[in-house]
Amino acid sequence: MIIGVTGSSGKLGRATVERLTAEGHEVIGFDLVGSAGAGFTRVDLGDYGQTLDALFGVTARHEGLDALVHLAAIPVNGLVPDVTTFHTNVTATFNVLHAAHRVGIDNVVFASSITAMGFPFDEAPPQLPVDETYTSASNTYGLGKVAEEAIAAQLARWGSSAYTALRFTNVVAEGEYDTFARAADPGYRRDLIGSWVDARDGARAVALALADPVPGFRVYNVASPTSGTADPSRAVAARWFPGTPVASDLGEYESLMSTRKIQAELGFVAEHDWR
Ligand SMILES: NC(=O)c1ccc[n+]([C@@H]2O[C@H](COP(=O)([O-])OP(=O)(O)OC[C@H]3O[C@@H](n4cnc5c(N)ncnc54)[C@H](O)[C@@H]3O)[C@@H](O)[C@H]2O)c1
């Protein structure tokens, strides 16, 4: 396939380009920043004209895309004013998803986030592990992700395209494993309910979703199936969320951010584990 990847210069974007290229796809990256050359075009996705044109075709780059992966965003609150996070991300995602619809790209995978389902979990979730049926935003970044999922869910009704939202948890790059030196600290990753995912496994989830497009809208959590905390998950759940129901079949180190759906439906398994 010829696949467009927005945010291709970012942490998840780089891993995704590498993965899809290794699988034999032709990949065209789109980002605000990046080195000019084959396989990359600089685009400001905040500008609808640029976005639409870039998805239609780019001289010397591509004449049409079979699928699109949308990862470009401001990836966390705090980098810019909160309102700018919301405006930037929701505008870019509307532009990308709507332009893809206009152009007729019928296989779209995009990044949502754990922030659409309770982060930083000051309120206890309804049950553990937390699955995709729970939606709860606590800041403008998370609110944007909830809005972006809603946009895709409605666009899915306007045709027969496949839209897959991937709710990534904290993405850990190959060189960032030092963080797990603190895995035994009682509060480590509390706001992430202990979850994490290696960037290369995140890219694997993208590839699996692209390979199995289903018309309509669907959402999957993307986390390592095992937790980022040293203690067993049932003890961690009791420490952080006393009284919250915990699945009777919770695995010893199973992630409290459920990955059961993506494992069952897309065959996701993690290739990397900090343990
Ligand atoms: N990193 C995480 O822990 C994490 C967790 C959950 C969800 N996500 C989501 O995953 C996606 C990728 O995150 P990341 O960690 O790779 O972020 P990143 O900041 O490393 O990369 C994002 C890229 O998007 C580009 N970009 C931003 N605005 C743009 C615009 N208007 N036009 C073109 N390019 C633009 C940036 O230049 C950057 O290269 C984002 O949607 C993010 O919200 C990330």
Automatic annotation (TrEMBL):
What keywords are annotated for this sequence in UniProt? NAD, Oxidoreductase
What Pfam families does its record include?
A: Epimerase (PF01370)
Gene3D superfamilies tied to this protein: NAD(P)-binding Rossmann-like Domain
Q: Which GO terms describe its molecular function?
A: oxidoreductase activity
Which InterPro entries does the entry link to? Epimerase_deHydtase, NAD(P)-bd_dom_sf
Q: Where is the NAD-dependent epimerase/dehydratase domain?
A: 5-223
UniProt superkingdom: Bacteria
Q: Which PANTHER family does UniProt cross-reference here?
A: 4-EPIMERASE, PUTATIVE (AFU_ORTHOLOGUE AFUA_7G00360)-RELATED (PTHR43103:SF5), NUCLEOSIDE-DIPHOSPHATE-SUGAR EPIMERASE (PTHR43103)
The text of the family note is:
Belongs to the NAD(P)-dependent epimerase/dehydratase family.
- What is the protein named? NAD(P)-dependent oxidoreductase
